[in-house]
Amino acid sequence: MTRWESCPSDRVLVIDYDDLWTRTEEIARHLRLDGTTFAAQFPPRATRTTGQA
Q: Which superkingdom heads the taxonomic lineage of this protein's source (predicted)?
């Protein structure tokens, strides 16, 4: 069991890398941040270079 698996479920947020840009509101709520500001300041998705996982 990894350390994060032993944390209370309300303290762990698992998001696929490809979903980061469509779930900014959820991420902001989880971090107790203003969703509109967080989404506006979230960096745009950049094209990944070949060879990166």
A: Bacteria
